[in-house]
Amino acid sequence: MAADVYVKPKRLLAPVATTTGKVQWLGIAILTTIAAVAILAPLLSAYGPTDAVCDPFEHPGPGHLLGCDDAGRDLFAQLIYGARVSLFVGLSVAVIATTAAVILSILAGLNGGWTDRLIMRIVDVALSLPFLPLVIVLGVYLGASLTTQILVIALVMWAQPVRELRSQILSVRAMTFVEASKAMGAGGLHIGARHILPEVAPLVVPQFVRIAHSAILVETSLSFLGLGDPLQSSWGAILYHANARTAFLTGSWLWWIVPAGVAVSVTVTALAFIGFGYDASLSPRMRHRKSPIKAPAAQPDPEAALSVRNLAVAFHSELGTTEAVRDVSLDLGRGDLVGLVGESGSGKSTLALAALGLLRVSAEVRQGAVLLDGRDLLRLDQDDIRRLRGHKIALIPQSAMNSLNPVVTIGGQLSEALAHDGKTIDEAAISTWLARVGLEARHARCFSHELSGGMRQRAVIAIAICNTPDVVIADEPTTGLDVLVQEEIMALLLELRQKLNLSILFVTHNLPLIARHADRLEVMYQGEIVDRGTASQLRAAATHAHTRDLFESLPEIAGAKRWQAGIAEGAPLLSLKKVSKGFRSRNSLGFASRTITPVLKDVSLDLHQREKLGLVGGSGSGKSTIARLMMGLLRPDAGEVLFEGDPLGRQAILKAHAKSVHMVFQDPYGSMRNAMSILDIVSEPLCIQGLTHQGDTAERVRTALDAVCLPSDGAFLSRLPIQLSGGQRQRVAFARAIVSAPKVIIADEPTSMLDQSVRMEIMTLMEDLRRQFGTAFLFITHDIVLARHFCDRIIVLSEGRVVEEGPADTVIHTPAHDYTKRLIAAA
Q: Which of 58, 292, 682, 811 has the most CB within a 10 Å radius?
């Protein structure tokens, strides 16, 4: 069947329907034409490039299209035969330099250590030398010849690509999908061939094009200076002879110099077009479209601090137009806290950024108005709206780590915000605002990486509100924080709202958090507001099915368990016995310090067959470190990690462990490489374990996809992760986990980055897998409510120590430790 045929996606060329693709194909067509002319030169010209066939300086005519030089040689023949030499030099240099760069960068990036340091010091020396003088000196020293030209140009062009490719390799090595492959038992050869090289390949093609482009220019320059092969007719040699033989004095420069110069320019431009278009094979370029905004029909509420009326926003790319916001209207009352809730992709952040005039250039506001104090923000010029930002309306951005400048202190960034109008800011003002958000004066001297996630978020809030705006738009300000820190940030915003009379639009997909605190909820779905009202009203009588689904997906900590208890069987499959683990920090030069920061302290736990064990704790408590120890990705400083009673370490144990224990990572977007098809992703454990030769790979993949309720036809197997939603990606991750029939799945925060309704789907999927395959689960989470409903036992971890352990209901209903009580209170 045609639907069952796996088609590997093409990625080397941009889509021809796009403008970028047309530019790339134009470059390919031009270069192909030049190459064809060079190859067919004997058929296109009746003369050789060195044959004396006409009078010196003869003008162009029917017999000699470009006339003749001072020796009576046909210039058209020289031009088309010269294409052979120039293209040969350019492509030869590109092959040699690119090959050398790829080999050296892989050695440096994969091996690290002294190999990396040695190669990079040689690169530093090579890059510090002056380029053109070095080429000239080497050319003179080695003598003029075509071989010399190729070697000399390649010798000075390999260094820069090594640095760029090596940095990409280091970046890829740190990717979650590489760690996932290691967790499956993959070795360096598999990781290099399956992940590193394919990820580096997109950079190799532009590097090749850039080197060929530069080599042709350098070859032309060397030949023009007389350092080329005097017996070869290249475009540079034509220019050299024209200059040396008084072409300008005789007036013959028009047909002697211009054609060769144009040929060089056209070839270089064609190569540039090819390189330009390559980027769009991975992601389309955005289009900027500016059109008049249609005025809204309705009038704003005079009592509202901010009014949005009939707003419609679309995004344009070379592949089409996406409507993100459709005819949305809402009012934010003075002093109100309104929650704008919805799943990822519903248009929440687009609406928020539109109100601030911060949409990307590819966005088009088609209609509507955003009114603040009677002024339509959508119709203000950039200078006017810039004066309002921070003073009248402010943004608390989503990611505090990305929002803060890593090389400027917190105090410096706060001072910059306070000095918005050129005011002089003293330390007292900075300390005052830091104190208002729960930070100390000493934190003004800290950089962002020196603060915890909650402290960074507090600093971002201080920067946003330090000019006491009337309206604050908080775009997912608690995403990525554990439940206790989420409550701290929410309490801080409520306190500031009361003290400063702020009106807050709180954009989030965290319905449980905002439902407890918001005055009103606005539910957004597929770009529209589909429901509004208080949390109690919507819970009792939602008008839209999506709203009902959201509230029904909220588990209650004291309600009946949603998933039945498992039955632990037999001896432990995985165990930690008095395990401790610490990490060394690194200084600014990258050297490890002597100071070890302890992460785990004397931790013991057991996971039995068919058991669902919950590991609960806040950020930094050591949960993910335990997962990596149990996967064999880390080794303990003290204690033992046991698999079926045997310590991890011997090759036979590691091999059995890799087949029996699989890990599902927190990030469904980073744990699989976007360039791999679903078939390749799910079958990777079989490939690592050497089981693909059995010939039933596709069938086993289909069985795994069926088990996680995903399509298993050829069309789906051919898709890429980038074409899937977050929930679908995480289901693919579970399919990859079960394809080799493991005994244990370690699920490290598998729902933390997913929307509320999708979280419940993934939890139900995990329960179905346990019932169907008898799989044991270590469920790592900071959400104690989910852990209570799903798990048989719960272990509570705080500051690297186990502070409480027991049956899930016992831990919830009769907690013994204060930290557990705080987690329950925040749920």
A: 682
Is the C-alpha dihedral spanning 23, 28, 29, 34 positive or negative?
A: positive
Q: What is the mean pLDDT of residues 606-624?
A: 89
Phi-psi region for residue 678, left (φ > 0), alpha (ψ -120 to 50) or beta?
alpha
> What are the φ/ψ torsions at residue 689 (nearest 5 degrees)?
-85, 0
Residue 807 to residue 603: CA distance in whole angstroms: 18
pLDDT digit string, tens, across residues 725-768: 777 888 899 999 999 889 999 999 888 777 777 788 888 888 98
Tell me, what's the pLDDT at 3?
37
Side by side, the strands of the sheet bearing 612-616 are 661-664, 744-748, 776-781, 612-616, 793-798, 801-807
Q: What is the pLDDT of residue 88?
A: 87
Contact 547, 538 (CB under 8 A): yes
Read off the pLDDT of residues 691-736 as tens digits, 9 standing for 90 and up. 766 568 888 899 999 888 888 888 889 888 887 877 788 889 999 9
Q: How far is CA 470 from CA 34, 127, 387, 388, 519, in A?
A: 64, 53, 14, 10, 17
Rounded to whole angstroms, the Cα distance separating 420 from 232 reads 65
- Does an H or E element contain 387, and which? helix 382-388
In the DSSP assignment, the letter for residue 194 is: I
Question: Under the phi-then-psi rule, with left for phi > 0, alpha for psi from -120 to 50, and beta for the rest, what region is 445?
Answer: alpha
**Could you say which DSSP state residue 231 is in?**
T
Beta bridge partners of 370: 308
Nearest to 397 by CA among 450, 305, 465, 483: 465
Amino acid at residue number 823: L
Closest alpha carbon to 761 in 555, 553, 610, 560: 553
Contacts of 553 (CB under 8 A, 6+ apart): 756, 757, 759, 760
Residue whose C-alpha is closest to residue 161's, from 100, 218, 215, 108: 100
Given a contact cutoff of 8 angstroms between Cβ atoms, the answer to whether 360 and 286 are in contact is: yes
Whole-number Cα distances in Å, 301 to 298, 325, 345, 486: 10, 21, 28, 32
Q: Is the pLDDT of residue 174 over 90?
A: no
The span from the CA of 140 to the CA of 133, in Å, is: 11
Going by their DSSP bridges, the two strands 320-333 and 304-317 should be labelled as antiparallel
This prediction has a pTM of 0.74
Contact between 622 and 628 (Cβ < 8 Å): no
Q: Are 654 and 632 in contact (CB under 8 A)?
A: yes
